[in-house]
Amino acid sequence: MLKGKQKRFLRAKAHHLSPIFQVGKGGVNDNMTKQISEALEVRELLKVSILQNCDEDKTEVAKALVKGTKAELVQTIGNVIVLYKESKENKQIKLP
């Protein structure tokens, strides 16, 4: 689990990132969680945007992504979810 200080640090790092995944009408599926997991292994920190046509509630989408990718939820701002997962081989972010 991330501490408050670590979440603040990650939020600051994520501020300038652009969302690289979008959750739309289909919601969260296995293929999407697999791709997000692979992207997290490379980047460690990423944003996922929730499109307006998504049928699921954004908190449900966030829970599904966290469960599917085993990542940490850093924050949800509007329709954007910020996820963090420590990389096994490609560690770049050093948490405070």
Helix content: 25-40%
Low-confidence stretches: none
Query: Could you spell the SSE succession in H and E letters?
Result: HEHEHEE
What's the overall geometry?
globular
Distance between the termini: 13 Å
CATH superfamily: YhbY-like
Number of strands: 4
Structural class: alpha+beta
What would CATH call the architecture? Answer: 2-Layer Sandwich
Strand content: 15-25%
Q: Can you identify the CATH class?
A: Alpha Beta
Strand order within the widest beta sheet: 1-2-4-3
Largest sheet: 4 strands, mixed
Q: How many domains in all? A: 1
Number of discrete helical segments: 3
> How is the CATH topology named?
Translation Initiation Factor IF3
Task: Please state the average pLDDT score.
Answer: 93
- Report Rg: 13 Å
Q: What labels describe this entry?
A:
single chain; 96 residues; Translation Initiation Factor IF3; four-stranded mixed β-sheet
Question: How would you characterize this protein structure?
Answer:
The structure is a single chain. The protein is built from three helices and four strands, in the order H-E-H-E-H-E-E. The protein has about 100 residues and is α+β, with helices and mostly antiparallel strands. The protein has one domain: YhbY-like (Translation Initiation Factor IF3), CATH 3.30.110. It has a four-stranded mixed beta sheet, with helices on both faces. Strand 3 and strand 4 form a beta hairpin. The two termini are about 15 Å apart.
